[in-house]
Specification:
- The complex is a heterotrimer of chains A (308), B (398) and C (155).
- Chain B is 30% helix and 22% strand.
- Chain B contains 13 helices and 16 strands.
- Chain C is of the alpha+beta class and 155 residues long.
- Helix content of chain C is 41%, strand content 28%.
- Chain C contains 5 helices and 8 strands; from the N terminus they run ααββββββαββαα.
- Chain C is globular.
- The chains are: A alpha/beta (308), B alpha+beta (398), C alpha+beta (155).
- Chains B and C meet through loops of B and loops of C.
């Protein structure tokens, strides 16, 4: 029998009880292709070719309705140029959405040259979130290690922002930030506030210049040295080059942190953001809807295959 | 209960559908191939023709029969009408208050498909799963799919590239149609699949099919089964492929594959797409156009950090492992229906059933780096590179 | 155990790189160790100089510099809690391949290499443990160096 009315089924993708899109995280737009108008409120340079853009919705109804969870991303749209998937780095004090972007393609370069007031489109939020509930939901609250490389701190900034606002819900928190040079370290103006919230912030660079008195080396070494009183209940959230994340996971496991406590966020070409265009596949996963945040164990196998 | 209609009733069927507002789409001969396009009467159908297919080869020729549907599949699939090759997904207009964005609200075209084969019904069911039954629904596919009426046809012959029996999708239609026809010499035996099918049938001169005709229809369907020689051994194919990602055979296929995307364009289930921006000269009116894309295109996997699948080896591997393995993880079904189009329309005749056999017959532990060939050895030879094991440093062959 | 050996033992027990060691093994190691505190800015050894001690860092960070023609002193790595330092003194030719500068106040356990080598030769099971821990520490450092190279040279 042909069913004339095709009813969308709730998500139940068959990967052995693993997560589907959480309805609370799904976009609240009837048509996933429809962008909402936003404007640039502020644009600040973070590092060479890296900038943070603050976006506010043109419509106050959209502004007050918009919700996201740390780890999710938006599709930022420059009409006539195209869309780019950009993780949400948090909110400004005025409630504008922060996106930290490296200008590498036509869309991101168009945003970089946009002035205050420049009109753009936004679809989102999309994708999975960092599992903050695994930390805040336990008694005592769990410990967290955040490990980032380069612009990988951007999707984790919203995590740290949440911890700063709800500090008592979390245990020990270490934020390990790696970058090529000190000029590539992002959000340095935020670090004092993070440290005031009893967050252990450690910075390290690959290459020290005359302006740098801090640590030299990659974040895996910082994990080797961390004080970890209760590794079994410590979660690790990491974002950076895939090779870095693989060895962050390895270093964390060598310190007694269970593999299932390790979370990564992945990047692939994204076009539709809703799992329908095929671009972002990594084996069985669609990075846009099954990710971008994944339990490391779920994707570890694919990350070690060249060109996959 | 099975019915029969005279062959001349096809004209009345088309007219009845048109009367209900349907555009009737069916097989026609265009540019020496049987394609799917608008038909207005049975005169438009490829009566008396037969296709012959083999890897890399397709021919349509007159045959010694007067039947309307005694052929198999051409390069077209019904995908183009439900998931159009080019469609507007959104528009934007700039005014002094900023951008106003909208998505198409016009009613979808109302299509009646005439001559849908069993493997194609399976392909439509797979695309239903992709576009309608995940966490996000594609509104364009949904609107078109809900409007469509399907008149299927049971195959009574098979092409050399057909392997629907291996994929358990045919050749006989069992579900997913409004009406299904089996063409005998002098009439069609009709199965009804839905109340809509019944309503259409009521507009025609219909009789109950006689036992002899039903028997004959069954025999013709069995003839198609008997003619199918190609096999795809699907035993444990999911694990076989995903455990063979470093298999040396991928390098061998890459030397033949042209990365031309034909297999993905003719595939009735491939759903990859990209959105293109189309703006007028003022830049104040933009249209977002979704177009079919292919995992064989180099920029398909482009990211800010570089292109993920840089060579034909990795792109062919992506296509085959997705089609036959990871598709199962994603959609609880194979992505292949056994229609054989990718075999016929591959310009170098790559046959996925043979590639799976090759992966199966050699142990996957013999991974070797590809042999470095001289760049002078000709355009079809791969100027090979030694891949760094884990650096992710790209070294494309394009 | 003297009070001093006990203090060294307690320090070693805290180190993540020595969690595999039994108390007995750590006591043996502590017997040739000496706790040191160095204020920020101290130079622990210099590139090209012979050195006769190997260290385990218990807290604080130390930078390793190498001299380059163009950039002068270039910091190549930071060393921190749990890391071995000056390993060339034990398994190399005793000549330092970098200059170590305390970038914070640091606490270390110094092991004099002549007596450490004697101890490890006499107790080959302890020698196996110490060399294993040293090899693991160096392999972590090598991995980090590879990642550093990839990050610096990957486009």
């Amino acid at each position: 029998m042909v069913t004339n009315k095709i009813t969308p089924q709730p998500a139940a993708l068959g990967r052995g009880g693993q997560q589907a899109v959480n309805p609370e995280l799904a976009i609240n737009q009837a048509d996933p292709w429809r962008s909402l108008p936003v404007r640039v409120k502020r644009l600040s340079i973070e590092a060479p070719s890296v900038f943070t853009v603050e976006l506010a919705f043109c419509d106050t109804h959209n502004q007050s309705n918009y919700r996201f969870a740390p780890g999710q991303f938006n599709m930022l749209y420059v009409p006539g140029v195209g869309e780019a998937a950009i993780s949400i780095a948090g909110r400004s004090s005025t409630g504008a959405l922060l996106h930290t972007i490296r200008a590498v393609g036509s869309v991101t370069q168009a945003i970089e040259t946009a002035g205050v007031g420049f009109p753009l489109g936004l679809r989102g939020p999309f994708g999975t979130a960092w599992p903050l509930e695994m930390l805040a939901g336990t008694n005592p609250p769990g410990d967290l290690v955040v490990a980032s490389g380069g612009i990988g701190i951007a999707p984790l900034r919203a995590v740290v922002e949440t911890i700063v606002h709800e500090r008592s819900n979390f245990g020990r928190v270490s934020v390990l930030v790696g970058a090529r040079t000190s000029a590539d370290l992002l959000y340095r103006h935020d670090h004092d506030q993070w440290r005031q919230s009893n967050i252990d912030v450690q910075l390290t660079v690959d290459r020290a210049d005359e302006n740098w008195q801090g640590q030299v080396g990659v974040v895996t070494l910082l994990i080797d040295r961390l004080t970890l009183p209760s590794p079994a209940t410590t979660q690790v959230m990491t974002c950076g080059p895939e090779v870095m994340m693989r060895y962050v996971a390895k270093s964390a496991m060598a310190r007694g942190i269970p593999a299932e406590n390790i979370w990564v966020t992945l990047e692939r070409n994204m076009n539709c953001a809703i799992g329908l265009c095929g671009h972002c596949q990594l084996g069985p996963e669609f990075i846009c809807k099954d990710g971008p945040v994944f339990p490391y164990q779920r994707v570890a196998r694919w990350l070690s295959v060249h060109d996959f | 209960m099975q019915f029969k209609i005279a062959k001349t009733e096809l004209d009345r069927l088309v007219a009845a559908l048109q009367c209900q507002g349907y555009t009737v789409l069916g097989p026609r001969i265009e540019d020496s191939a049987i394609v799917y396009a608008e038909v207005n009467s049975r005169a438009d159908l490829p009566q008396g023709y037969r296709d012959s297919q083999e890897p890399g080869k397709y021919r349509v020729r007159p045959a010694e029969h007067d039947n309307y549907f005694e052929f198999n599949l051409g390069p077209h699939s019904w995908k183009q009408f439900l998931f159009p090759p080019k469609v507007t997904v959104a528009t934007g207009v700039l005014s002094s208050t900023g951008w106003a964005f909208s998505t198409p609200q016009s009613p979808p075209p109302k299509y009646a498909f005439l001559g849908v084969r069993a493997c194609e019904l399976a392909a439509i069911a797979i695309q239903d799963r992709v576009f309608l039954q995940g966490p996000y629904v594609d509104p364009i596919y949904q609107a078109r799919r809900e409007a469509v009426l399907i008149i299927a046809v049971n195959c009574t012959v098979a092409a050399a590239t057909c392997f629907c029996t291996s994929m358990h999708t045919g050749p006989t239609c069992t579900t997913g149609f409004d009406l299904a026809l089996t063409e005998l010499d002098d009439c069609f035996v009709v199965d009804v699949g839905s109340p809509r099918g019944t309503a259409i049938l009521e507009k025609l001169n219909v009789e109950l099919a006689r036992a002899q005709e039903i028997e004959q229809a069954g025999a013709l369907q069995q003839r198609a089964v008997d003619q199918i020689e190609k096999r795809l051994d699907t035993t444990n194919v999911h694990d076989l492929l995903l455990n063979s990602l470093d298999h040396p055979h991928w390098d061998e296929v890459a030397q033949r594959c042209l990365s031309c995307t034909n297999c993905t364009m003719v595939c009735p289930t491939c759903f990859c797409s990209s959105v293109a921006e189309v703006a007028d000269l003022s830049g104040e009116n933009v249209v977002r156009q979704r177009q079919w894309d292919s995992c064989f295109n180099l920029d398909f996997s482009y990211t800010a950090g570089g292109t993920v699948r840089n060579d034909r080896r990795s792109r062919f591997r992506q296509w085959l492992t997705h089609k036959l393995a990871s598709w199962q993880d994603q959609f609880e079904t194979s992505g292949c229906v056994g229609c054989g189009r990718c075999i016929t329309w591959c310009p170098v005749g790559i046959d996925l059933t043979e590639e799976v056999d090759a992966l199966r017959s050699q142990p996957s532990s013999d991974r070797m780096l590809p042999i470095v060939e001289s760049p002078q050895s000709g355009p079809l030879h791969r100027t090979c590179q030694v891949r760094p094991a884990e650096s992710g440093v790209s070294s494309g062959d394009e | 155990m003297t009070a001093e050996v006990h203090a060294v033992f307690d320090t070693l027990r805290q180190l993540p790189s020595l969690t595999d060691f039994s108390d007995g093994a750590l006591q043996q190691l502590a017997s040739v160790g000496q706790e040191l505190v160095k204020p920020v800015g101290s130079i622990l050894f210099s590139e090209g100089d012979p050195h006769d001690r190997i260290y385990l860092v218990s807290s604080g960070t130390i930078r390793l510099d190498m001299l380059t023609a163009k950039c002068g002193r270039q910091t190549i790595l930071s060393i921190g809690a749990g890391d071995f330092l000056a390993w060339s003194a034990l398994i190399g030719d005793g000549v330092m391949t970098s200059t170590a500068v305390a970038t914070e106040n640091v606490k270390l356990v110094a092991l004099e290499t002549v007596s450490l080598r004697q101890l490890l030769e006499q107790h080959s099971d302890l020698g196996y443990l110490v060399m294993g821990a040293l090899a693991k520490s160096l392999s972590r450092r090598l991995l980090a160096t590879r990642l550093q190279l990839l990050d610096m040279y990957h486009p």
